Amino acid sequence: MHRWSPVMMRMAAVSAAIFGLAVIGLVVDDRLITGAPAWLKPAKFGASGAIYLVTMSFMMRDLSPTPTVRVAKSLIAWILALETAVIAVQAARGTTSHFNIDTPLDAAIFSSMGLGIATVWIMSAVLLWKHLRTPAADRTMAMALRLGLALNIAGAGVGWTMTQPRPAQLAAMQRGERPFRVGSHTVGAPDGGAGLALTQWSREHGDLRIPHFVGMHAWQLLPLLLLGLRRVRTASHDGTERATILVASTACAAVFIAALVQALAGHPLIPPSTS
Q: What is the pLDDT of residues 40-89, one digit of tens each?
């Protein structure tokens, strides 16, 4: 058994610290960016980055520290922490971090973030492949983590659909209008409309953040479900545990696909009231 990744745990602590600073920002800074509190995005990415890195570090305990594994873990850890820091800097500047190409600086930041996340996505796939080829002492937990990471990679891939320019944006850029945006969370309308409390997911149109969230965090749900099952059962039974994880992962995949289809069709998670 190998120990948790030091670099991932250190960068998880950095992400958690940014989350803490963003929470303070939410309290003391009342500015809005595209209709949402300025520090909401850094808070969400700080928390998500810390959870991602702790989960990956936990999963990678089974892997031998080969050069490929060490490089992949370091790239993931540093890039995620830096991306969260950049999101916080953009919030402090009072502008968006995603889809923003309004100035050369904003365009460079957004392009760099896209390159960084693509690198994290590829490195995550590399580590999943390595894990699949490594015998695990706890095979049911390894199954939960592998299926969860596969869903996480699929959920992260939804980010690509967010960065595609919408027809209205292409038309605006061709007319030379500012500010310029490339992509959006919302399908069928610009970002910034009415949103659900806390998440700010659109209440009126499709929102690609929903399948993104489901896919990304199924990775934590599956092993936590297994740990909860082991806590309440008086006797361990591998067959029951594996069947539970298989059913749960299938359900997560079905919810992810349904949420993605719904978002791409431009429909909100909760239809607006007609009364």
A: 999 999 999 999 999 999 999 989 989 999 999 999 999 999 999 999 99
Rounded to an integer, what distance in angstroms lies between the CA atom of residue 19 and that of residue 36?
Answer: 16
**What are the backbone angles phi and psi of residue 14, rounded to the nearest 5°?**
-65, -45
State both tokens at 171: 């038309």
Residue 33 sits at φ, ψ, to 5 deg, of -125, 120
- In degrees and rounded to multiples of 5, residue 36 shows phi and psi of -115, 155
Global pTM value? 0.90
What does the pLDDT look like over 130-149, one tens digit per residue?
999 999 889 999 999 999 99
Pairing mode of beta strands 186-187, 206-207: antiparallel
- The Cα–Cα gap between 114 and 137 comes to 36
**Closest among 13, 11, 16, 19 to 76, alpha carbons compared:** 11
- C-alpha to C-alpha distance for 24 and 58, rounded to whole angstroms: 29
